[in-house]
Design brief:
The structure is a single chain. Helix 1 packs across helix 2 and helix 4 packs parallel to helix 5. It is built from eight helices and eleven strands. With 266 residues, it is an alpha/beta fold. It is globular, with a radius of gyration of 19 Å. The structure holds NADP nicotinamide-adenine-dinucleotide phosphate (NAP). The site of NADP nicotinamide-adenine-dinucleotide phosphate has 29 residues, from helix 1, helix 2, helix 8 and strand 11.
């Protein structure tokens, strides 16, 4: 299975990769991997002193990069704008919240699946989407509307966001987790797609793999804040390689806050 990993080199014949070095790779779920520099997304972990290693798989990893490109490339997000993000307590969602704050967001609104997650997020504004129709809850949280939306969920969340967006608003469509279990059935929502025309909205898909160039910018923004303690990696850690499947299914069920990680060695 696909999955980003952080590992330590145990043996190497590659120049520039020595035994003991830390590397990121995308060779999938495994305890050991045979990789070449650059192959399967393999790259050395930058030596950022004072930065927790978990950051490289969360806010500085593909998760953070997804959030960063959604905000800066797709939404062209600007200071003072009001933003809604769905699955706000998840990996991408927490990174969106933290990075949007660094970029000077106005009102930040998030949805999450439990009161505890909402409570953890609501130094900002949030709502539990099980408490009622998403569109109505969002309208209550943002009576004056929103400028931008990062969509991790699709379906009713996308419909609610289309309703709440102001004219010329933007949507960065990152994922549709509410639809992954029923990919063969047409989704019941959104039913208001034509509002995209009526309000001159822009909806654009985001694929993180198209933006490796943005990694340096993300690091420049976030690493000093990680060192200064202004930003922390948001992660849930499951221990044991044999619990990888539990962790993955738990993520789909919402058992994680922040990025779901599996620890297979210290
Ligand atoms: N386009 C790209 O390049 C890219 C890259 C990375 C990830 N993604 C996408 O980004 C999204 C987030 O990924 P992630 O890895 O950071 O996962 P995540 O948000 O950490 O975990 C998924 C979360 O989704 C929520 N969820 C599950 N079922 C839901 C439903 N039916 N309705 C609403 N929320 C639901 C759960 O939280 P609650 O407890 O709040 O329900 C769960 O914790 C996914 O859609 C993923 O496919 C896209």
């Amino acid at each position: 299975m696909e999955g980003r990993a952080l590992g330590r080199v145990t043996a190497s014949r590659a120049p520039g990769l020595a035994e003991g070095d830390l590397v990121l790779h995308r060779a999938g779920w495994r305890t050991h991997a045979l990789v070449t520099p650059g192959g399967r997304g393999t790259r050395p972990v930058p030596a950022y002193e004072g930065v927790p290693l978990t950051a490289h798989l969360s806010i500085l990893g593909g998760t953070g990069l997804t959030a960063y490109v959604a905000l800066t490339r797709t939404l062209e997000f600007r200071a003072g704008q009001d933003l809604f993000v769905s699955a706000a307590a998840g990996g991408v969602g927490t990174a969106v919240g933290r990075i949007a704050r660094l970029l000077g967001a106005g009102r930040l609104i998030g949805s999450a699946g439990t009161p505890a997650k909402v409570a953890r997020l609501t130094a900002e504004l949030g709502f539990d989407y099980h408490d009622g129709p998403v569109g109505e809850l969002l309208a209550q949280a943002a009576p004056d509307g929103i400028d931008a939306y990062v969509d991790n969920v699709g379906g009713d969340h996308l419909e609610g966001a289309i309703s709440a967006l102001r004219e010329h608003g933007r949507i960065a469509w990152v994922g549709a987790i509410s639809q992954y279990h029923s990919a063969h059935e047409p989704p019941a929502a959104p039913r208001n797609l034509f509002d995209i025309v009526e309000k001159s909205l822009r909806l654009e898909g985001v694929l993180v793999r198209n933006h490796p160039d943005a990694q340096r910018e993300l690091d420049a923004l976030v690493v000093p804040r990680l060192r200064g303690g202004l930003v922390a990696p948001d992660v849930t850690v499951v221990d044991g390689f044999e619990r990888t499947v539990d962790g993955f299914l738990g993520m789909l069920r919402g058992e994680n806050t922040g990025k779901m990680l599996i620890r297979i060695a210290d």
